[in-house]
Design goal:
Elements: H1 15-19, E1 25-29, E2 35-39, H2 49-58, E3 72-78, H3 81-86, H4 92-102, E4 106-113, E5 116-122, E6 139-140, H5 144-153, E7 158-162, H6 164-174, E8 182-187, H7 195-204, E9 209-212, E10 227-230, E11 233-236, H8 244-251, H9 257-260, E12 273-277, H10 285-288, E13 293-297, H11 300-307, E14 312-316, H12 319-322, H13 345-351, H14 354-361, H15 370-415
Parallel strand pairs: 4-7, 5-6, 7-8, 8-12
Antiparallel strand pairs: 1-2, 3-13, 3-14, 4-5, 9-10, 10-11, 12-13
Helix pairs in contact: 2-6, 5-6
Length: about 425
């Protein structure tokens, strides 16, 4: 039998399932709301192909690496206001995806379906909205890597978007061959959380369907509220007392176990492009309320792509400005593993009263609720360890990039 990653280090990328030619691996959601592979012994031929691909992803041993000297950070936003409005930040992904689709390409991204997330392919701009917007639970990518390879071999232009570990899984699946017709775009990932957190969030709010995890209808930066179907209508759940999903997410206690010591939460980015919210941007106050994106071109290929897109407003920024509010770009949060309760979620929901489970899993910082207050105080105290390390990692990362910038300027002056 293949020795796949255990539950602590398995990223849930699902590369193993696509690798198996005998369909011996299925992806199952466990009782704590996380995706894991299950091997059918009767179908497995013990070729160990899945094991090889799995090790490449889980150990962070990549076939594809970018040179730090090529990294360029940008402030960005989509000039198409309609696309920008329904995007989570500045709508940069939609602008890049539109460019690919206009050139008869295929875009792969994550879609909400039946209160879960799955990766799909889009070939028409009218369907692009379905894969816009951030998702905080893990996407099911079964069959996606296999189909991506098929499209690439047909010569189709492909933009593949996902979390860094999903990008790594794609590269692992594709092997040593490089494809000029493939572009990869990774999100700045803070870790995915258990699916059942969403289930109970909907249950507590008497809603039956998630529409969006964030909405800018209240303004960018004020959008930590879900949009759901409730009583037959789309509703933004603005009651902070019932914002269980975000309270749990912000606590850092219900992440997938592998997310705490993520091999890809470091500055050595793996995709052609990295994108996310540009928190802390002070360059464009007039654009801030509409949402701003941070785009990092991680290689020449990625930079050449975004420079072609007229629909994208693109202005160079500095590492000092863009890194502080996005710590997952340069360091993990392994200290939070000490306060994780992900592997106990099933028991907490099943065997403890709703009041206890809700306030222990998703505590709100309020003195009116003693249990939630004590739990939140404990979490904040534990997370102070991370703050100290984040500051150190930030200083080192900025110094590293400044040295590259200095050398680049020297090279340019010598050419001139």
């Amino acid at each position: 039998m293949p020795q796949l990653a255990n539950k602590k280090i398995c990223t849930g990328c699902m590369c193993c399932a696509d690798t198996c030619k005998n369909q011996a691996i299925s992806i199952i959601e466990d009782k704590n709301g996380l995706w894991y592979p299950k091997v059918d012994k009767t179908k497995c031929t013990e070729c160990h192909a899945c094991e090889i691909k799995c090790n490449l992803v889980c150990n962070g041993t990549l076939l594809h690496k970018n040179e730090l000297k090529d990294f360029i950070p940008y402030t960005a936003w989509n000039k198409d206001n309609k696309q920008r409005d329904i995007s989570t930040s500045g709508g940069s992904f939609a602008a890049i995806a539109s460019h690919i689709l206009e050139n008869k390409g295929i875009v792969c991204g994550a879609k909400i379906e039946n209160n879960r997330i799955k990766h799909i392919f889009v070939s028409d701009k009218k369907d692009l909205h379905s894969i816009q917007g951030v998702k905080y639970i893990q996407s099911n990518t079964t069959g996606i890597y296999k189909q991506t390879k098929a499209y690439l071999n047909e010569g189709k232009l492909v933009l593949f978007s996902g979390t860094p570990c999903q990008i790594a899984a794609l590269y692992s699946y594709l092997g040593k061959r490089s494809y000029n017709n493939l572009y990869t775009a990774e999100v700045i990932c803070h870790g995915v959380i258990s699916n059942i957190i969403l289930d109970y969030h909907l249950k507590y709010n008497h809603a039956n369907q998630i529409i969006a995890f964030r909405s800018k209808k209240l303004g960018w930066g004020k959008d930590t509220f879900t949009t759901v179907m409730k009583d037959g209508k789309e509703t933004i759940l603005q009651n902070r007392k019932l914002n269980f999903f975000y309270d749990a997410f912000k606590s850092d206690t219900v992440n997938r176990p592998s997310c705490y010591s993520c091999k890809y939460a470091n500055i050595k980015r793996i995709a052609d492009i990295t994108m996310g919210d540009y928190w802390g941007n002070k360059q464009f106050p007039s654009e801030e309320t509409k949402g701003l994106s941070l785009i990092i071109a991680n290689n020449l290929k990625g930079n050449e792509l975004i420079q072609q897109i007229e629909q994208l407003s693109l202005i160079k920024t500095t590492w000092k400005e863009c890194l502080p509010k996005n710590p997952r770009l340069y360091c993990d949060k392994h200290e939070c593993e000490e306060i994780s309760i992900t592997q106990q979620l099933h028991k907490l929901f099943l065997y403890t009263p709703r009041f206890f489970a809700k306030n222990y899993i998703g505590p709100r910082a309020t003195k009116r609720n003693i249990l939630a207050y004590i739990r939140n105080y404990y979490i904040i105290k534990k997370k102070k360890k991370i703050d100290k390390r984040v500051k150190q990692e930030l200083e080192q990362t900025i110094k590293l990039f400044e040295s590259y910038e200095k050398n680049r300027n020297i090279d340019l002056s010598q050419i001139n």
